[in-house]
Design brief:
Bound molecules: the ligand O=C(O)[C@H](CS(=O)(=O)O)OP(=O)(O)O
Cofactor: Mg(2+)
Keywords: Hydrolase, Magnesium
Structural class: alpha/beta
EC number: 3.1.3.71
Number of helices: 9
Enzyme class: hydrolase
GO molecular function, one term: 2-phosphosulfolactate phosphatase activity
Length: 239
Amino acid sequence: MKITVIPHADDIHSDTLSHKTVVVIDVFRASSSIVTALSHGASAIIPAGTVSEARQCAKEGMLLGGERFGKRLDGFDLCNSPQDYAAPLVRGKTIVMTTTNGTRTLLKAAKGADVIIGCFLNASACVRFIRQLKHDAVLLCAGTRGDFSLEDGIAAGCLIDLLLSDGQTVQANDLGLVLHQGYLSVKDHLLTHLCRSASGDRLMKRGLARDLEDCLVMDRYDVVPRWKNGRIHSFRLPD
Ligand SMILES: O=C(O)[C@H](CS(=O)(=O)O)OP(=O)(O)O
């Protein structure tokens, strides 16, 4: 199986995603919040590209979630902290969500054969999904405003490590190889290392240390959020 890691959302070349399983990785914080929401009973997430599209799309009974540049949006029910999406409020709800990098990256992933959302919180579940589909995979790091983000890359390295762990032949691109080594060197101290990344540092300075902790738990949840027909639903893997 071939694994291609793409460093950020503005580095997708035509046809890279076709016929592939695409994993959209935005550890801080959109992927982690989406995984948390579906694990806590949200019925679906509708990703929106802009704040005004999100507002237009939200029908009665739906929740609005997201941020711009990390800040809460006027009139939105939820921001982008995983703990917002762990609240009883989300149970049974459809959430229209727009974030600075994560939902934008997701919308760019549309050409993938299957598009799922991954992070540390559901790493093993994502790997089971990739294995079952048996397609080559693209690990699409969201990054931050057109730049690579360390935490997304280290999560990609983590997925590669899990894919390798049952002895399967996995051929990663050069970026994937280096991120795999990067993951191995920090995996026992993720918080210590990833709070120094640009996004980690930004969240720390905003007093959101709790978000970092919540995003860096390995395999807290077993759901695979899958984007299909404009909505993200929880996909349960057959045993
Ligand atoms: O709120 C976040 O964590 C980020 C915004 S920023 O890059 O920190 O300004 O959004 P996301 O789309 O989850 O990367």
